Every structure is written in C-alpha cells, then in structure tokens.
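Each lists sequence, tokenised fold; shown next:
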Amino acid sequence: MSRELELLRLLIREEMEYYGKMMKNMGSSSSGEVEIDHRVAELQAIEGQIQQLEVTPLRMYGPDDTRKLDILKDRKAQIEQEIKELQGIL
C-alpha cells in the first residue's frame, strides 16, 4: 500500500508542477491560483505528517494514532479534490 501512496504522491507533485508552470506562463495571479497555492501548501504539510506516521509505526500504540492517520488521509483526499475543482475553474 505504501508503494501505491508513493506513486500517488509523485503523480500529484508532477501535476502540481505542471499547473504551476502553466500558471506562470499565463502571467496572472488570480485569486484561484492563490487558493490553489494555499491548498498545495496544506497538502504538502499533510503528506509530511502521513509519511512521518507511516515511517515510524512503532509510535502507533493505540487507536488514537491510527485514527489520526485515517483523518489525515481523509483530509488529503478532500484537499486533492478541492485542488482539482479549482483547477477546473481556471
């Protein structure tokens, strides 16, 4: 499963880089782009937290830790959907 997550992360990063380059070429800084940048920063922070929890499973002692991982993954999926919707608007 971690292999699948790593591939998904790489795909998301490539997509973000592509849209970042495309937006820079357009030369505009609309509020939609600012919102996407904010969501991307939040997504990267969540990915870091997820990766930290996945890499250090010895710290996972109880259901609170696994619940935190589930909450982070749900929030990550929600942010990814928000980014896609914002990109669709642009």
Q: What stands out?
A: Residues 6 and 24 are 27 Å apart (CA to CA).
